[in-house]
Amino acid sequence: MGNAGRALGALAVALLMGAAVAGCGSSAGGSAPAGAAPAVSDPHAGHGSAPPPAPLRSGERFQSLGMPVAYTPKAPNGGTDEYRCFLVDPKLTKTAFLTGSQFVPQNAAIVHHAIFFRIAPEHADQARKLDADSPGEGWTCFGDSGVTGDAWVASWAPGANETLLAPNLGYPMPPGSLMVMQVHYNLLASGGSAAGSDQSSIRLRLNDDAAAMSPLQTGLLPAPIELPCTAGETGALCDRAAAVADVGKRFGAEIGGREDQLVKLCNQGAPPAAGVTQHCDHKVPKDATVYAVAGHMHLLGRSIKIELNPGTAGARTLLDVPKYNFDDQAIHPLDTPAAVHAGDTLRVTCTHDAALRGMLPQLKGTAPRYVVWGDGTSDEMCLGLVVMGGAGR
C-alpha cells in the first residue's frame, strides 16, 4: 500500500498479507501523561478495560513495547483523523514467534484502532531513515507503514482482547526485525485539532522455540462501500464523485483511489451500484487451514459476514455478525478449523446504514456524504480478516 499500484496489489492478493494472531486488549495502564484527554463515555469513543492476560505457556515470554514519548495528534489536510506510525524495536537476536499480543491504548478517547507491522531486517534502515526524516515523533502514514515489505503482525480495535490459538501457532519474527506501531487517532470531537496526548503500548507474547512453531498469516478481505445519502439528506458530498475526491484530499491519492480499485476488483467490470449492502469474492491462493476470523467496519456498520464457497454444497459461514457493534470487534477462533483449498472462494458481505449518521454522538453534525472506502472515522470500511496457516486438512 505504499503507492496506488501496491495498494491495488495488496487488495487483490490480500490473502498473502501477514496479520495478528490475536486481537489485543484495551486495558489502560499507568498514569496519563500531561495534557492527555480524559476518557469519555460516548458510544464508539471510550473503550473498557481488558482482563489480565492468560498465563504464559511453555516456551513463551512477555515483552512490552511502547511509544518512547507521548504524542499529541492533529489531523492533516482539514480532516478529523490522523494515522501516525511509531518505530519500535523488539531487539530480537534470534527468530521468535508472535503467539499473542495485548495493546494498551493509553488515551482511549482518541485511539480508534492500532496495527503493528513487522519490518524485515533488510528494510530496517529504510524505516529508520523515514523516522529520522519526519518532523516530530513518528510519521504520518495513511494506508500502511510506508516501508517496503511491511507485514501486518498485530492489531487492536475496540472490544478485541488477547485471543490465543494453539500454542504452536504464531507469526515469525526474524532477528533484527523492527516493528511499526500505526495508531489511528479519531479527532472528530475536536474538529481535527489537538485533543490531548497519547502514549500507547503493546505487550507481546513471544515463543523462542522456533522448531516447535508453525507460521500463521491472516488474509484481508475488503469489499467496496457504495452508501448514498438518506432520502432526507442533501449536500455537495452526496455526489459520489465529490465524496471520492474528498477522501483523496484528506488522505492522499492512494486512499482516494481505493474505492474505485475495489469496485474494479469485486464487481467484475460492472459499474458501482449504490446500496446498503455490498460484497466481494476473494479466491484462496493456496491450501491452508483457517483458525480464526474477524470483521471491521466503522460507525455506520450494521452487519458483516464471511462465507466459504457460498452457494455450493460445501458452503460454510465462518463469521456472522447480524448486529455489528463497533465496540466489540474481537477475533473469533473457530470451534472447528476450516480447510480451504486453492481456488476456493471467501466472500465478505457488509451492510451499512447512513441513517446512523444522525443518531450517533460522534457523527452528529458531520456533513451528509455518499460514503465510500476511506480511512476516516466518518468514512467506512468493509474488511474481513481470516487467520490461517499450513495446508488444508
From TrEMBL:
SUPFAM superfamilies the UniProt entry points to: PHM/PNGase F (SSF49742)
Biased composition regions of type Low complexity, renumbered to the chain: 32-49
UniProt GO molecular function: copper ion binding; dopamine beta-monooxygenase activity
Domain Copper type II ascorbate-dependent monooxygenase C-terminal: 281-384
The UniProt record lists the keyword Transferase: no
InterPro entries: Cu2_ascorb_mOase-like_C, Cu2_ascorb_mOase_N_sf, Cu2_monoox_C, DBH-like, PHM/PNGase_F_dom_sf
Superkingdom assignment: Bacteria
Residues annotated as signal peptide: 1-22
Record's keyword terms, sorted: Disulfide bond, Signal
Region Disordered, residue ranges: 32-59
The keyword Nucleotide-binding is assigned to this record: no
Name of protein: Copper type II ascorbate-dependent monooxygenase C-terminal domain-containing protein
Protein species of origin: Dactylosporangium matsuzakiense
